[in-house]
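ok so I'm stuck.
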Amino acid sequence: MAKLWAGRFQKELDRKVNEFNASIGFDSRMFEQDIMGSIAHSQMLGESGIIAEEDSVKIVDGLLGILEDIKSGKLNIDYNEEDIHTFIEGELTKRLGDVGKKLHTARSRNDQVALDLRLNLKGEITSIKELLLKLLDALCGIASDNLDTIMPGYTHLQRAQPVTLAHHLMAYASMFARDVERLSDVYKRTDVLPLGACALAGTTYPINRDLVSQKLNFGKVAFNSMDAVSDRDFVIELGSALSIVMTHLSRFCEEIILWSSWEYKFVELDDAYSTGSSIMPQKKNPDIPELVRGKAGRVYGNLMGILTVMKALPLAYNKDMQEDKEGIFDSVDTVKICLEVFTPMLLSCKFNKQIMAQAAEKGFINATDVADYLTKKGMPFRDAYKITGQLVALCVEKNYSLNSLPIYKYKDFSPLFESDVYDAINLKTCVEKRTSFGGPSAESVSKQISIVKEFIKGNA
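replied:
not stuck anymore, here's the structure
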């Protein structure tokens, strides 16, 4: 088929240049959005009197027929075409003749491309939010079953203070809830209609952009035609939001990888979400979380790619911006598949509660509670901190834990110590007494779960 822009040119495009210039290999995934955008545009042209109503109806019927044929497999997309827009318009013209040629009235590929991309990414944002909400629901379920599962909390990968598995998991729920909020914000700025901006300067035809916006369910209409065709902030923002999703997933995956090792043994991955070694028959490898962790770099790279493409581009549209799609489509697909495998993997995990509890008994993670015990009896915290440090040093030297250190040893350091210190530093007490909002007690974590469940309902 002749190029849409062929009138000015006397020679055919070089074959290699044509391949280099073409985008149909990746923009073909927007065929439905392209057709729906063209239907709304055609209806507006007819209702505004720019083309005859009967021609508008024929165009809409023709486009619906093309959509049905592509979906059913009756019509195959021709990947020799320049882009999906050219293919669909060419097919329409084959079917309708000169009537099909009227579709592109008061429209440029510049605003058409921007429209298709926004429509496509609006749908993808919604899909990813749904996957995140499923993950949040899974976290709430596992947390509800582990309100009393004590484990060590870490800082610097060193055992720090006692928490529960539920408390630990709800920290990730907080992260993924923020991801949902970020995606909702990105959606608002993606939900802006560019169609009607044409190439960059609008049109002399009496178009009705608000009507098109209503038909396509956009929240706003872009108010500057040059910005409408050259804006890719929404792609950058989505790339950034997806990168942060992958940051959270990779952190979670790193912990699952550590926890599933023989050194931790906190969790056992289900056989359906593990692989073995080709040479070591004893191995059970955490390949799924490792792959998710690795794919984070890929999504980060796509973000840097679009940032670099847009850097220093003059207004308005430039061909560089054709590079906006492959990266963001890859990021979308990557995040979706990661969430689709991560959530069921997490739900199938077996958490070794006894081993977690045993790990919590080591490392003096109740030392802060010893200091708090003295402080509550009137000793300044810094003095209590120093004495507790000396007690830990003694325990290390004599191979005691703080729980097993005899009371007379405690009294050597301060007469404030009484036998009730053992109740105060019991790990269960340490956790349950931390009732401050956001803390690890069962009461506090139950509130956190309720907050997230309400969040899920509010975003479903």
